[in-house]
Amino acid sequence: MGAVFAFVAAILLVVAPASQATTPSPTPSPSNQSFQNSISGFLRDDTRAPLAGVTVTAKSGDFTGTTKSGANGSWTIGVPVQGTYRVDLDESTLPEGIKLADGQENPRSVTFSQTSNLSVIFAFGKGIVIQQQDFGQNLINRLVAGLSFGLLLALASVGLSLIFGTTGLTNFAHGEMVTLGAVLVFAFNAMNLPFWLAIILALVGGGLFGYAQDAGLWKPLRRRGTGLVPMMIVSIGLALAIRYIIQFYFGGATQQLPFAQSAEIQIGPISISPNNLWSLVISAVVIALIGVVLLKTRLGKATRAVADNPALAAASGIDVDAVIRLVWIVGGVLASLGGILWAYYRPGVTFDMGSQILLLIFAGVTLGGLGTVFGALIGSIIVGVFVELTTVFGLAADLKYVGALFIMIVVLLFRPQGILGRRERVG
Q: pTM for the full model?
């Protein structure tokens, strides 16, 4: 355990100045780095051209925050606490000939819900009337968003399922492996490394962290014959320790990765942000590659053999420890990638972002079938789609994650082994 703590501390010591670094952002608001929560948006006219230099103010009680939109029309105001704010766009700073759309409320009251970043949209254009989005259009958009969310959950779930399948361990520290990927990208980017290199180094760091966990903690515990329940309790303590080590060096504020805020694009009837589209494509490609490796390669067959029966696999000449070590490395890489995509989906990087979706990851794994990789994939997609669709049918945004856990409970009442799991006799 000391080796694992030392590994995490060493990484964060190297990148500790990153918590004080300024996140690359087009908006110059000085309050953004001071507070954990923020209100943001994009200003574009009816031709989709960005509106720069427009003053926006947010007020609540004694707090007043002001900023100007950047060259791409984006603006962000850091706020001290979540709550209701009055957002006022100074129309006198609008470019000549540009005015707010008919019916557009200004100033307007906005309230935080679930996320630490609240988006506010102002519509512009002569004769434009603000209308509610069509139900069918909203349903399609939420379905696509749910698929994107489900696939990024699947990246983390597949790693957790592989670890459970080969070791039997329910690893509650998996959420911190998700967090580490996003934190490392932010840290390396703050060190002025190229963005693509920061992502590669973050994935490598996630893999090394998985290796360090197994070599420094779980392998010695397995050799001592430690039971699965005590090991699960150790993983809970490990999760808390790593979470607050990250907070100590990273800080409690929400930071943004480069290109985190982008306007939605229209693809036929679907409206989706470029980040969510990239997340969907990357997740699908990576999961497809994992499936091919597991089904078509000797390494994949060895992994499935260890997950099915470690003793028989060892008797067949398979190096069980080597397979488990590789599973931990792959699980760390997949969790880091899931954390990076989650930081763009939210958007934002926080010290506890992994723990926020840990129960959803467990829900996906349990729903699909414990220890089954493809079950984790199916279960995660169901959870992601269900989470997003519940808001379409009137469920409060604050309760949408609770709904996913409820559907998991209902399914397990009728099929305890999960969707692709197999029946097992206990006792």
A: 0.71
Yes or no: say if 29 and 78 are a contact pair by the CB < 8 Å rule: yes
C-alpha 13/C-alpha 294 separation (Å) is 36
How many whole angstroms separate alpha carbon 186 and alpha carbon 189? 5
- The DSSP secondary structure of 400-425, one letter per residue, reads HHHHHHHHHHHHHHH-TT-SS-----
**Given this model, what pLDDT does residue 202 score?**
94
Answer for the pair 271, 148: CB distance below 8 angstroms, yes or no. no
- The structure tokens listed for 164 are 């459970």
Angle (nearest 5°) at CA 40 between 38 and 45: 170
**Residue 110 scores a pLDDT above 50:** yes
- What DSSP line would sit under 73-118, residue for residue? SEEEEEESSSSEEEEEE-GGGSPTT--BPBT--SSEEEE--SSSEE
Sequence-ordered list of residues with C-beta below 8 angstroms from that of 181, at least 6 positions apart, any chain: 202, 203, 205, 206, 335, 336, 337, 338, 339, 340
User: pLDDT digits over 271-318, tens only?
Assistant: 788 888 888 899 999 989 988 888 888 888 888 888 777 788 888 888
Measure the CA–CA gap between 253 and 137, rounded to whole angstroms. 35
The residues near 138 (Cβ < 8 Å, ≥ 6 apart) are 392
Selection from 353, 417, 30, 29 nearest residue 175 by Cα = 353
pLDDT band at 115 (very low <50, low <70, confident <90, very high): low
Residue type, 78: G
Nearest of 30, 35, 25, 129 to residue 74 by alpha carbon = 25
Distance CA 92, CA 257 (A): 32
Of 127, 83, 129, residue with least CA distance to 105: 129
- Of 88, 78, 62, 148, give the one whose Cα is nearest residue 118: 78
For the chain, report the end-to-end CA distance as a whole number of angstroms: 32
pLDDT tens digits, one per residue of 2-24: 555 555 555 555 555 444 444 44
Angle at 333 between CA 327 and CA 334, to 5 degrees: 85
User: CB within 8 A of 123, min separation 6: which ones?
Assistant: 100, 101, 104, 130
Q: Count other Cβ atoms within 10 Å, centred on residue 172.
A: 20
Omega of the bond leading into 269 within 30 degrees of 0 (cis): no
Q: CA Rg, the chain, in Å?
A: 23
